[in-house]
Design brief:
With 458 residues, this protein is an alpha+beta fold. It has a single domain, classed as Cytochrome P450 (Cytochrome p450). The strands form four sheets. It has a five-stranded mixed sheet with strand order 1-2-8-5-3, sandwiched between helices. It has a three-stranded antiparallel sheet with strand order 4-12-9. A two-stranded antiparallel ribbon has the order 6-7. Strand 6 and strand 7 form a beta hairpin. Helix 8 runs antiparallel to helix 12 and helix 13 packs antiparallel against helix 15. The longest helix has 32 residues. It binds protoporphyrin IX containing FE. The site of protoporphyrin IX containing FE has 22 residues, from helix 6, helix 12 and helix 19. It is a single-pass membrane protein. InterPro entries: Cyt_P450, Cyt_P450_CS, Cyt_P450_E_grp-I, Cyt_P450_sf. This is Cytochrome P450 87A3.
């Protein structure tokens, strides 16, 4: 017990904090649901007690938590030097961050994976190709939603983003596919803080089983494509591109490709669907925001020669209020409790030592809910963004992370959400039927979900 509570630190002193009980550490306290958008009480209370940098133990790993802006910035810039991208054990295993074909690798491998994701989902691709495709798919999806008496938004939005992303990646034909791959992904997030105990009945066991099925399905697909290299069977999607590159990039094994696609899919739909779900909750509670949002998009239609033409890039760029709404949703959403890294060597911060091998949890969300920067921080107030200084924003608002691991899907998700709002408010009406409770455990969740009724505008 003494040894557990007083971990060794050969070089300097550890930040203050408590390591909890042997094996479980303080995991259970972090998993207690908190029914608010506020920072999880686990983090809030410890910041008050110990200051913005403290130590703890989560799922059996010693962790340093930082809610200090300077330390956070420093850690995110240390990628590949004194820290590496690392989530907790169960999650790392599921996402393929360990093993021979580690997708978390730094340097050449990492820049290849970023480059490929950006060439399909980055700014240029969105501007030149994806915007009208997103608009078409959102319109179709909302039509389908309108044919149901009730839609649970989180579930339906997850499927929408997943299907579109999977179509760009491996030409997934969601309308005609019998395999609803998306369903198998939904349990993944539950693994975020699970113990890596592979025993029937545990969350980890269930996740591992789902993951194996997905990996097998994707591996079969990669094998099938590789076995039929004829030009006429090529789809020109991300998977074809990567398979082509296997001749020149030796790290591109089938395992690596499967895990890379899995991580990209997972990163895309769980995040974007959470923000869209939160949007329905907050817009239903704040009709004046919905009113101004609708006015912005109706003005776009009025300024067109032909009201029925597709959304253009210039129109997207003109959506000032939509961007403010999106920023406010991202600020309050704080999807992940923190960004995780592993110290590769002893690191000195604020007079303390982060020992090599420890996990570092960068809690950038603490800055997004800081009342000194964002007055009345829990209020949903998109208008606040009009007056915020860009310097303050860049230092205190990091919904897409920072440094070398900054989100590659930031533009994609922003375009997706703006297009979704555009189609929703110009072509459809909706009402909330029930639900909308939010909790953090510490990941944001929506209880029984948010149920809405959608109808076409006359
Ligand atoms: C609202 C939506 C989204 C949010 C809030 C979000 C947030 C983030 C954050 C905070 C990180 C940094 C993680 C870290 O440093 O540990 C990240 C990384 C990443 N995101 Fe997103 N993301 C979103 C949408 C997407 C989408 C749509 C995609 C897919 C195209 C995507 C793909 C990725 C990838 C591949 C990384 C890892 C980048 C790297 O390691 O270099 N994200 N995201």
């Amino acid at each position: 017990m003494y040894k557990w509570r007083n971990p060794k630190c050969n070089n300097g002193i550890l930040p203050p904090g408590s390591m909890g009980f042997p094996l479980i550490g303080e995991t259970l306290q972090l998993l207690i649901p908190s029914y608010s958008l506020d920072l999880h009480p686990f983090i809030k209370k410890r910041i008050q007690r110990y200051g913005p940098v403290f130590r703890t133990n989560l799922v059996g790993r010693p962790v340093i938590v930082s809610a200090d802006p300077e330390v956070n910035h420093f850690i995110l810039q240390q990628e590949g030097k004194s820290v590496e991208f690392w989530y907790l054990d169960a999650f790392s295993k599921l996402l393929g961050l360990e093993g021979e074909s580690r997708i978390s690798a730094a340097g050449r491998v990492h820049s290849y994976a970023r480059g490929i994701a950006l060439s399909y989902f980055g700014y240029e691709s969105l501007k030149e190709k994806l915007l009208p495709q997103i608009e078409e798919m959102v319109t179709k999806t909302l039509h389908t939603w309108s044919s149901h008496t009730s839609i649970e938004v989180k579930h339906a939005a997850s499927a929408m983003v997943f299907n579109f992303t999977a179509r760009q990646m491996f030409s997934y034909d969601y309308e005609n596919s019998s395999e609803k791959i998306c369903e198998k992904f939904t349990n993944f997030l539950g693994c975020f803080l699970s113990f890596p105990l592979n025993i029937p009945g545990t969350t980890y066991h269930k996740c591992l089983k789902d993951q194996k099925e997905i990996v097998k399905m994707m591996k079969d697909m990669v094998k099938e494509r590789r076995a039929s290299p004829a030009a006429e069977t090529r789809q020109g999607d991300l998977l074809d591109h990567v398979i082509n590159d296997m001749n020149t990039e030796k790290f591109l094994t089938e395992d690596f490709i499967v895990h890379m696609m899995l991580a990209l899919l997972f990163a895309s739909f769980e995040t974007t669907s959470v923000v869209l779900t939160l949007a329905f909750k907050l817009l239903a509670e704040h009709p004046s925001v919905l009113q101004e949002l609708t006015a912005e998009h109706e003005a776009i239609l009025k300024n067109r020669k032909n009201m029925d033409s597709s959304l253009t890039w210039d129109e997207y760029k003109s959506m000032t209020f939509t961007l403010q709404v999106t920023n406010e949703l991202l600020r309050l959403g704080n999807i992940a409790p923190g960004l995780f890294r592993r110290a590769l060597k002893d690191i000195q911060v604020n007079g303390y030592t982060i020992p090599a091998g420890w996990i570092i949890m960068v809690v950038s969300s603490a800055l997004q809910l800081n009342p000194n920067t964002f007055e009345d921080p829990l209020a949903f107030n998109p208008w606040r963004w009009k007056d915020l200084d860009s310097n303050i924003i860049s230092k205190n608002f990091m919904p897409f992370g920072g440094g070398m691991r900054q989100c590659v899907g930031a533009d994609y998700s922003k375009v997706f959400m703006a297009t979704f709002f555009h189609v929703l408010v110009t072509k459809f009406r909706w009402t909330k039927i029930r639900g909308g409770d939010v909790y953090r455990n510490p990941i944001i969740g929506f209880g029984d979900g948010i149920h809405i009724k959608v109808a076409g505008k006359a």
